[in-house]
Amino acid sequence: MTDTSTAGTAPPTATAVRLTPARLRPGDVLRVGGSGLSSRPMRVFLSALGIAIGIAAMVAVAGISTSSRADLDRQLAALGTNLLTVAPGQTLGGGEAVLPDTAPAMISRIAPVRKVAATGTVSKAQVYRNDRIPSGQTGGISVQAADLRLLDTIGVEVVDGAWLNDATSRFPAVVLGSSAARRLGIAKAGPDVQVYLGGQWFTVIGLIDTAELAPELDTAALVGWPAAAAYLHFDGHPTTIYTRSDDDAVDQVRAVLGATANPKAPNEVKVSRPSDALAARQATDKAFTGLLLGLGAVALLVGGVGVANTMVITVLERRAEIGLRRSLGATRGQIRLQFLVESLLLSALGGIGGVLLGIGVTTGYAAAQGWSAVVPAWATAGGVGATLLIGAVAGLYPAVRAARLAPTEALATP
């Protein structure tokens, strides 16, 4: 008996199965991209070096400039920006004006003014280490009659000896500025240290530190006001008056100083703010920093071209690898992502190395100058960000080119 239970039944049909390419996880993408770099270490090093040089230049320039400005701000904070100086200008006829001898007292009556001190140039007196020096070898040292309140007003310290007082200001005693002491070869003050000043011997009783806001004092020999009149025939007219005023009233005081110092001829008075010179130097540093940053950007662009060149050569050398991966199921997007990540890693290596190198250069230079090293966060973050951007741009074309290779074409390439 024949079994007819399956008679007339159609044979089973095969179920269609659609294959989808596997997705690459982030870790897989990094490993695939990194393997391409590890196989060519010398080429990777040289390409990353081009990026590193550009980033290091930009970070170092920004860091050194910022450190310099921070040190300048510290100086201004310590020295103060409320110092104003009054000096004689020129007369209408073009001659040299003279400040009245009552000018310091008049200025001290301005309400916001807190400190006033004056110096007067003793024009006919010269300073020599001894009386055997030829008269023409003055060393560029000026002789100034000094107010006893001078150092307190300007904010300068005595580095050796003592400052003038009520007693020593009446006798042949002198205090030397920092540069004047070096030119005369004097490192210590004392009763046995003398200089030949104005045709007679003066005892060096003190040496003062560098005057940042009054550099004219660095090359000066300072004697007491009464002694200058008694021994050096000083006429008593001040040539520079230093004033300290309230911080919030500096501009108002500056506006009235000329008329107060010389009411008869306020147009013959020059009023200046020494801290403005330091601010101008800071502005000059900013312009110079902009120029150097531009040069760093050019170096960075050259490094980006090097990365692009490396990636193009890499694609040409690895056509067989690309064809094999495409034959095994890798999509164009995965091939494109692989080479793009490889370019980003290459640029990131150069960027991180450049940032570290730039920080090292900044730290070393700041230490040599006696500054505190300051590297702005925007410089480090911007440096790494710039390298990633350059890596993306430089690797985009090679990545697209690699993805467009057909498997048969790539495998057929010897």
List keywords for this structure.
11-stranded mixed sheet; 414 residues; disordered N terminus; 12 helices
Write up this protein:
Strand 7 (194-197) and strand 8 form a beta hairpin. With 414 residues, the protein is an alpha+beta fold. Mean pLDDT is 82; it is low at 1-7. It is built from twelve helices and eleven strands. Strands 1, 2, 3, 4, 5, 6, 7, 8, 9, 10 and 11 form an eleven-stranded mixed beta sheet that branches. The longest helix is centred in the last third of the chain and has 44 residues, at 274-317. The protein folds into two domains: 26-75 and 280-412, no CATH class; 82-274, no CATH class. The protein starts with 25 loop residues before the first helix and ends with a helix. The radius of gyration is 38 Å and the shape is elongated. It is 51% helix and 14% strand.
Strand content: 5-15%
Radius of gyration: 38 Å
Morphology: elongated
Please tell me the total number of domains: 2
Our measurement of the CA-to-CA distance between the termini, rounded to an integer number of angstroms, reads: 68 Å
How many helices in DSSP terms? 12
Helix content class: 40-55%
Low-confidence stretches: 1-7
Would you tell me the structural class of the helices and strands?
alpha+beta
**Largest beta-sheet characterization:** 11 strands, mixed
Count every beta strand, where a strand is a DSSP E run of 2 or more residues.
Answer: 11
The average pLDDT value, as a whole number, equals: 82
Element-by-element helix/strand order: HHEHEEEHEEHEEEHEHEHHHHH
